[in-house]
Amino acid sequence: EAEVAQSPRYKITEKSQAVAFWCDPISGHATLYWYRQILGQGPELLVQFQDESVVDDSQLPKDRFSAERLKGVDSTLKIQPAELGDSAMYLCASSHRDRDTGELFFGEGSRLTVL
Amino acid sequence: AQSVTQLGSHVSVSEGALVLLRCNYSSSVPPYLFWYVQYPNQGLQLLLKYTSAATLVKGINGFEAEFKKSETSFHLTKPSAHMSDAAEYFCAVSEGGAQKLVFGQGTRLTINP
């Protein structure tokens, strides 16, 4: 069964360091999402890609976060510099462009701890 | 803009008892509704979805949910809880197409032996 791949699963870093997360969506899925999930809360959308284009990054803290999907396949989310409040689970998800339900398929997530 | 409210951040039931997790939504168009389950340190797995067909939706692991437009609700139920049902459950709403999924705050389900 096709899955969304994410790495690393766990990352511990010190405040002010740079971190990066990688996501490979299900083959053929044109839409890719990065969500942030703070412990005890629901996931919140950071950025949405349609192919290689950003369609929604309104909740992305652009002073320190960046995301790219250069060839419209895999994607990287970067944080520089990391702050204590960035400790969270970073979830990647993908979906078909033409599906009309909006169902998302999630990866296992990347757990970030900032010390 | 759509939104989701999950009533009760923590629900505790005995093994074999009825599970009821509440979800109310707000949407300006007919919504698509989802329940996802999350086990510790894992991603989200789809339990079931409502996509404007039957209002009573059956999902995996014996869960089902009923869409009630008049009450703007999509509550999740399971007749008999099992220890393996202990997890975090999220209700979510989408307006379809490539629109984003908006999640509720989640309900942690605990099963007592």
What does this 3D model show about the protein?
- By secondary structure, chain A is mostly beta strands.
- Chain A is 0% helix and 48% strand.
- Chain A is built from no helices and eleven strands.
- Chain A has strands at 5-7, 10-13, 19-24, 31-37, 44-50, 53-56, 65-68, 75-79, 88-95, 105-106, 110-114.
- In chain A, the strands form two sheets. In chain A, strands 2, 4, 5, 6, 9, 10 and 11 form a seven-stranded mixed sheet that branches. A four-stranded antiparallel sheet of chain A has the order 1-3-8-7, with no helix packed on it.
- The termini of chain A are far apart.
- Chain B has 113 residues and is mainly beta.
- Chain B contains no helices and eleven strands.
- Chain B has strands spanning 3-7, 10-14, 19-26, 32-38, 44-50, 56-58, 64-68, 73-78, 87-94, 102-103, 107-112.
- In chain B, the strands form two sheets. In chain B, strands 2, 4, 5, 9, 10 and 11 form a six-stranded mixed sheet that branches. In chain B, strands 1-3-8-7-6 form a five-stranded antiparallel sheet, with no helix packed on it.
- In chain B, strand 9 (87-94) and strand 10 (102-103) form a beta hairpin.
- The interface between A and B is medium-sized, with 32 and 28 residues.
Key features of this structure:
heterodimer; A: 115 residues; mainly beta; 7-stranded mixed sheet; 4-stranded antiparallel sheet; 0% helix; B: 113 residues; 5-stranded antiparallel sheet; 11 strands
Ends distance of chain A: 37 Å
Summarize the amount of helix of chain A as a percent range. Answer: under 10%
Low-confidence stretches of chain B: none
Strand content of chain A: over 45%
Strand percent estimate of chain B: over 45%
- Overall, the morphology of chain A is globular
- Radius of gyration of chain B in whole Å, from Cα? 13 Å
Element pattern of chain B in H and E = EEEEEEEEEEE
Structural class given helices, strands, pairing of chain B?
A: mainly beta
Supply Rg of chain A.
13 Å
**Pair with the most extensive interface?**
A-B, 32 and 28 residues
Number of helices of chain B: 0
Helix count of chain A?
0
The major pleated sheet of chain A works out as: 7 strands, mixed
Total strands of chain B: the figure is 11
- Quick one: how many beta strands of chain A? 11
- End-to-end gap of chain B: 41 Å
Which H/E pattern describes the elements of chain A? Answer: EEEEEEEEEEE
